[in-house]
């Protein structure tokens, strides 16, 4: 979060004590610099990456585990630290490169949810390697690839790329990722991070190792919640017993646990409380769908689709009685600035990818196919606050 946002947050407090001190610290879509209780996982990843400390590239690897097991938290924290290894300056045509180490590869993290196209992927990799921003318009994919190849050729020690969230509905699929990797220079190695079992993805045909990340154990998840709460809430804002209750319910899923904490804190904040109560937690847990779509997926959608979802979650029940009624209600909102046809298409596309559900009505008039309504597959309160904070 930037300085301006921090100042505005404090201005909103109006000098009164607030339960939520820092939304970012309790956000289920923000990874902290030091993931709690993930030392063994970090050691396994460092064992695989050990050649980089001798100036060599590690082999390709596939990192996998269930949703909410902390894959992204560990990888982003690890790569952020590896990027700080000693550096020296090099050059590239039309750009200013970041300082690069004479004895260590460069490290690049790519979020596949935000780089599903070939252009977006190569743009993200190149943009991570240079100081000057790479233009998003007026430049073609082949030009990006050419510049990337030229830069990587000058990187004598090569590049290690981590591509996260692969094979999700709105992200890069495994076969496409194989093709993208094939378009990279030879002195590049990669880590692909996903949920599929190694036997179920073709990526393992091109890797030397598969690294499993298991669900959080109960006490680990309690530590995660208490660490986040101590950083983001007022003192004693979350009781240890409530953290245990959330962890028991979440069953090792850190995303859902953090979503419940975030929602509970929001409920308590709305009521002017100075701490989270059992009632807040129970109401928060009831709001998290099962199964739940990751809020990171929702907040990675194009801006216009997020705007549609923002209006969807605030509709009255009568306005959600059918897809047609929902479409008309959302399209009538001036700030959305989309036609009814476009809104309906977005809703159908997001239903196809699982972000929302089309739920068939249980009561009909006996004529024709029963209408269906649209229900979000993500916690509305958390999305509402996170969406509004980024506006």
UniProtKB/TrEMBL annotation:
PANTHER family in the record: CELL DIVISION CONTROL PROTEIN 6-RELATED, ORC1-TYPE DNA REPLICATION PROTEIN
UniProt keyword ATP-binding, yes or no: yes
Signal found in the keyword field: no
GO biological process, one term: DNA replication
Signal peptide: none
Annotated protein name in UniProt: AAA family ATPase
Source species taxonomy: Archaea, Methanobacteriati, Methanobacteriota, Stenosarchaea group, Halobacteria
Lineage: superkingdom: Archaea
Keywords: ATP-binding, DNA replication, Nucleotide-binding
Positions of the Cdc6 AAA+ ATPase-type lid domain: 223-284
MF (Gene Ontology): ATP binding
Organism (species): Haloarcula argentinensis
Record-linked InterPro entries: AAA_16, Cdc6_lid, ORC1/CDC6, P-loop_NTPase
Any Pfam family matching the protein: AAA_16
Residues of the Orc1-like AAA ATPase domain: 38-185
């Amino acid at each position: 979060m930037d300085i301006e946002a921090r100042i505005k947050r404090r201005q909103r407090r109006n000098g009164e004590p607030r339960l939520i001190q820092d939304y970012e610290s309790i956000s289920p879509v923000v990874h902290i610099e030091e993931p709690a209780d993930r030392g063994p996982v970090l050691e396994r990843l460092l064992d695989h990456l050990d050649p980089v400390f001798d100036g060599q590239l590690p082999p390709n690897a596939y990192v996998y585990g269930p949703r909410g097991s902390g894959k992204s938290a560990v990888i982003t924290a690890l790569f952020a630290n590896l990027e700080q290894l000693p550096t020296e300056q090099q050059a590239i045509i039309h750009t200013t490169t970041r300082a690069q180490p004479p004895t260590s590869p460069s490290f690049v993290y790519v979020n596949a949810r935000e780089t599903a196209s070939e252009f977006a992927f190569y743009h993200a990799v190149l943009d991570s390697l240079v100081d000057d921003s790479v233009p998003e318009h007026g430049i073609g994919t082949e030009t990006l690839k050419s510049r990337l190849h030229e830069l990587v050729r000058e990187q004598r020690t090569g590049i290690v790329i981590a591509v996260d969230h692969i094979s999700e509905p709105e992200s890069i699929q495994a076969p496409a990722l194989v093709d993208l990797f094939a378009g990279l220079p030879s002195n590049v190695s990669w880590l692909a991070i996903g949920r599929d079992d190694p036997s179920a993805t073709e990526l393992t045909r091109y890797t030397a190792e598969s690294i499993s990340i298991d669900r959080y154990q109960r006490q680990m998840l309690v530590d995660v919640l208490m660490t986040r709460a101590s950083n983001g809430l007022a003192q004693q804002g979350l009781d240890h017993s409530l953290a245990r209750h959330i962890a028991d319910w979440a069953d090792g899923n850190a995303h859902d646990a953090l979503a419940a904490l975030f929602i509970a804190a929001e409920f308590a904040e709305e009521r002017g409380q100075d701490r989270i109560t059992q009632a807040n937690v129970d109401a928060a847990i009831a709001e998290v769908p099962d199964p739940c779509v990751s809020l990171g997926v929702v907040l990675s959608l194009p801006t216009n689709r997020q705007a549609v979802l923002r209006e969807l979650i605030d509709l009255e029940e009568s306005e959600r009685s059918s897809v047609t009624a929902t479409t008309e209600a959302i399209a009538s909102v001036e700030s959305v600035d989309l036609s009814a046809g476009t809104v309906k298409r977005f809703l159908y596309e997001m239903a196809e990818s699982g972000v929302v559900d089309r739920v068939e009505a249980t009561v009909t008039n006996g004529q024709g196919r029963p209408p269906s309504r649209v229900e979000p597959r993500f916690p509305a309160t958390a999305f509402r606050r996170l969406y509004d904070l980024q506006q």
